[in-house]
Amino acid sequence: MKLYPLTILVISAIAIAESATAQKTSIPKNFPSFFKEGHRGTRGLMPENTIPSMIAAIENGANMIEVDVYTSKDGQVFIAHDAFPNIAHTLYADGKEIEAADARRFIYHQMNYEDIRKFDVGSKPYPLFPQQKQVKAYMPLLGELIDSVEAYTKAKKLKPAIYNIELKTNPRFDSLGYNSGPEEMIDKVMGVVKTKNIGNRYYIQSFDFRPLIYLNKKHPQVTIGFLTSSRTLSLEENLEQLGFTPDIYSPEYRLVTKEMVEACKRHQMKLVPWTVNTA
Q1: pLDDT tens for residues 9-52?
Q2: With a threshold of 0.85, does the pTM exceed it?
Q3: pLDDT grade for 206, boundaries at 50, 70 and 90
Q4: For residues 45 and 275, what is the distance between their CA atoms, to the nearest angstrom?
């Protein structure tokens, strides 16, 4: 398989023992032993967090695709990394530039999805990823994205995709009106996932303790990943705040140490660092 640079495929290294007897987790048996994730799809080749980006990730060998989710004013779950237009790669529907001072006028959570969908997130050249193809693209609904990927893998007779769904909640976002609260976010996302015939082919991750605590209580069968970039909270302190042991522990890769690897084995968590290849 050919791999491309510039975070086209984000290889999430699994820093755990290879032996099946070394660790038991509640990771579904149909999950791969090594997570080769398309981070926001293939943002090095296609506009991030779009359906074409997810398809390209699968074409380039990803065995998981990662998406970020928000909710709109009218309660739709859609795919985006930022709470308002990222002017580095987003244009108005007519192709005009969005001024930096105007971007925060368009907080997605305070807009109906039909208006969010009008932004063009693919036509503007993205200097950070010079190989990225410029194509007019929009922010899709989570359900629409799943349907499109499922149809693609079925038509191509490929192994079905596994979805890594990241919740973009944050206590600070609550006060700013950037996204739904943690419980509503879980209810909305699970409401979408349950309508799709994907079984257990997904997991939910977040930096935010709150939705994961709620998810673990309400849907204990769902695979959960905890994200962290904290250099002040230890693994043990993170687990104490969660109040349970997640299936997946995902630190920023520079935080990984031999001691962390051993701790993950001890707690029977899969260690999935992010993001080990850089631009």
Answers
A1: 444 444 443 333 334 357 999 999 999 999 999 999 999 999 99
A2: yes
A3: very high
A4: 17
What pLDDT is attached to residue 276? 73
Residue 110 CB partners (closer than 8 Å, separation 6+): 73, 177
What CA–CA distance (Å, rounded) separates 180 from 70?
8
| Number of Cβ within a 10 Å radius of residue 230 | 14
Distance CA 91, CA 57 (A): 24
DSSP assigned state of 197: S
DSSP secondary structure letter of residue 228: E
Place of tokens 């928000």: 70
Q: Which two tokens stand for residue 89?
A: 């790669």
Amino acid at 172: R
- Which residues, 6+ apart, have CB-to-CB distance to 11 below 8 Å? 3, 36, 37, 276, 277
| Residue of 70, 263, 105 lying closest to 181 (CA atoms) | 70
Q: What is the DSSP string of 163-184?
A: EEEEE---HHHHHHT-S--HHH
Q: How far, in Å, CA of 109 to CA of 103, rounded?
A: 13
Q: In the predicted model, is pLDDT for residue 130 greater than 90?
A: yes
- The Cα–Cα gap between 242 and 219 comes to 15
Q: Which residue in the block uniquely carries the two structure tokens 């990771």?
A: 27
Beta-ladder partners of 68: 166
Other C-beta atoms closer than 10 Å to the C-beta of 244 total 12
CA distances to 17, 49, 84, 96, 257 from 101, in Å: 49, 24, 12, 15, 41
